[in-house]
Specification:
single chain, alpha+beta, 2 domains, five-stranded mixed β-sheet, about 35% helix, binds D-MYO-inositol-1-phosphate, binds calcium ion
Length: about 250
């Protein structure tokens, strides 16, 4: 399964990269929410490969939907995470593929085709970047920490994120908005940022990334500190060391 997840993510990454310099067809599927022809092509490639190799497994994929069965194996696919970036030719985007077993994360792969970065994790097996072990950062306090977040689409959500940002900016090193939740989780796992949080996530944004963070030594909870499950829309992923301090900081917002 891990080999197939990597093959699917790298193959889809090749398709995404081929279309990166040219024009793409962009459609609005919701308020400020884009989808391109490349999202769909990437999704078909990934889902066809999974169906060929594992015909009995379920697939839950962002554009095609699907069924999140309670039992058995579920492949949770984001064929292109960071579509708004991609549509603008901004270079931060990735493919994210997670496998759940009985709703618990088993495998996570995030592939950044431009950088040729393949982040991969298996429960109990640690996290790797291009086959080299990775670990979350050693930042022990918020004071010098780099925190990732995203704005969301709705104005109400953006106002809420502004309040979080305003509070954090006065106590942490700095704040980064990446535009790809999957890459933000991968960067926490690699120790390139110290934490990432967002209140409006979907299972395909988090299935692979939260496993990578945990396997790299980090911690994932809801933004109120409850254990994180892929069905939860809000997630705080950190290097573990600053988790409680950040929960406390976020808790001071409405
Ligand atoms: C989005 C990105 C973005 C996050 C949004 C996601 P998409 O995914 O991960 O960073 O803030 O919540 O929906 O639409 O580009 O796959
Ligand atoms: Ca996404
Ligand atoms: Ca997507």
């Amino acid at each position: 399964m891990l080999k197939t997840a990597i093959e699917a993510a790298v193959g889809a990454g090749r398709l995404i990269l081929e279309s990166y310099p040219g024009n793409r067809t962009v459609t609005l599927k919701g308020f400020r929410d884009l989808v391109t022809d490349v999202d769909i092509a990437s999704e078909s490639f990934i889902c066809n490969l999974i169906r060929t190799r594992f015909p009995d497994h379920s697939i839950l994929s962002e554009e095609a939907g699907g069924h999140a069965a309670d039992e058995g194996f579920i492949w949770v696919v984001d064929p292109l995470d960071g579509t708004t970036n991609y549509a603008h030719h901004h270079p931060l985007f990735a493919v994210s593929i997670g496998v759940l077993h009985r709703k618990k994360p088993l495998i996570g792969v995030i592939h950044d085709p431009l950088q040729n970065h393949t982040f991969a994790a298996q429960t109990g097996g640690g996290a790797r970047l291009n086959d080299m072990p990775i670990h979350t950062s050693g930042a022990g306090t918020l004071k010098h920490a780099m925190i990732g977040m995203d704005w969301g689409h709705e104005n109400k959500m953006r106002e809420r994120m502004l309040r979080y940002a305003s509070r954090m900016l006065s106590v942490c090193g700095t704040v980064r908005v990446l535009g790809s939740a999957a890459l933000a989780f991968a960067y926490v796992a690699a120790g390139w940022i110290d934490a990432y949080f967002q209140p409006g996530l979907k299972p395909w944004d988090t299935a692979a990334g939260t496993l990578l963070v945990k396997e790299a030594g980090g911690r994932c909870t809801t933004m109120k500190g409850a254990p994180y499950r892929v069905q939860c829309p809000d997630c705080l992923a950190t290097n573990r060391l600053i988790h409680d301090e950040l929960l406390n900081c976020l808790g001071q917002q409405s």
